[in-house]
Amino acid sequence: MIRSDASRRVANLTIAATLTVVLLGTSTGCHLVSSAKHAIPAHRLDPSLFSCPRESMVSISYAALGQDRPPEHLIGAGDTLSVYVYGVFPANEEETPVQQRTQAVNQRYYPPRGTEVGPSTGLPLRVDERGMIELPLIGNTSVAGKTIPEAIDLLRKAYQEKEVLKEGNEQIYMSLIIPRVRRVVVLREDTPNPQVALVQPTTNPEIHRGSGQVIDLPIYENDVLHALAATGGLPGTDASRELYVIRREAAQNSAFMNAETLQTLTSGNVGVEVNPNIIRIPLSVQPCDVTTIPRDSTILHDGDVVFVPRRNEYFVTGGLLPGARIALPRDEDIDVIEAIAMATGSPGGPLGLSGAAIANANPGYIREATRVLILRKLGDGRQITIRVDLDRAINDAKERIRIQPDDVVMVQQKPAGAFMNVTMNWLGGQWIPNAFLINAND
Length: 442
Fold this sequence. Notes:
By secondary structure, this protein is α+β, with helices and mostly antiparallel strands. It contains 9 helices and 20 strands. The protein has helices spanning 2-26, 148-161, 224-230, 259-265, 295-298, 336-342, 356-359, 390-393, 415-441, and strands spanning 40-41, 58-59, 80-85, 98-100, 119-121, 123-126, 132-135, 139-142, 172-178, 181-188, 211-218, 242-246, 278-282, 284-285, 305-308, 314-319, 324-327, 371-377, 383-389, 408-412. α1 runs antiparallel to α9 (415-441). The model is unreliable at 26-32, 268-273, 347-353, 357-363 and 431-442 (pLDDT under 50).
């Protein structure tokens, strides 16, 4: 009888051991162990091989997006002037006509209290495309490129040569009523609504609406700085750190454009473009970089387009982490440990993944996952696999590699940890207690 009981215990233990081997061999599925044979250890990589840290980037001087205003207004085609020549223009007016200045451009850009409004003497004359105005007795007179005092002297000499006005008795008045404007289009792919809605980091916003506005910029304010100020200010955190100025002439060669196409048409250096009609202007640069923005590149002309592209910088999670596509912060660097925390999922631990071990009455992940594989695309199109040891990353800063856009972050088990977790879940949770309870009852 004793030999029979001993034989039964040995048989039960043999069955349990056999099942242990079988279950361990069949339980190393996709979420436990993966091959990291050809992966490169993170601490052996030089950080300079990848993009510069985001936190070291600084904003450019936004004054560089504007332009210098000349001391005096230079007359040009499109200006509306008020001109008065006593006894000549107007010919039959005994009283001096007074023109009241009105709003120059749209109310949204120039609020009423911020506009120069005042009276001017004379009748309105618009400078034509040739830069000329037509006056009685002297005909067309070119005033383009001249200041108001220089234009008055020009009219005075012209009427004296015609012996219309005597020297010393001239009464000529001229002032600017409405400055010429440049009509440009501003297309922005960042969020136009000032009421920003906060979403979970794992939320993938597939629906996104940008904005577009047609604005009239007065001369000497027809630049990128005023165009941004008139359409909502600086780009938001969902916008790229750069913008593009697309000249009207660029539409003749490129009918279809997006952010990727524009990057191929411009080089990395400002002012040296592959297509001279498409200008890239960075908004953040490295402090050590010598970046100059040519003044001509920020000045806008009729028909130009200012394009603010959307920022598409994400990393993807997988393995023991919940599958998600998570947006990277624009102005901050995150390392592999922070990326795991942003994934809002536990990579292991006594409770298992999201506490599911309690519901299944299993021990769960007694040994947490400590291996991370990062799939990264290089600039030349190749892909490398980087291996991170989370145990080592706690003390070694080189192991805490920065996450780049389009990285795939997969948390996985090491073979030793996988063996321990499988043993505790399949044997310690079910087979071993049942085997001993059966033997005890016998």
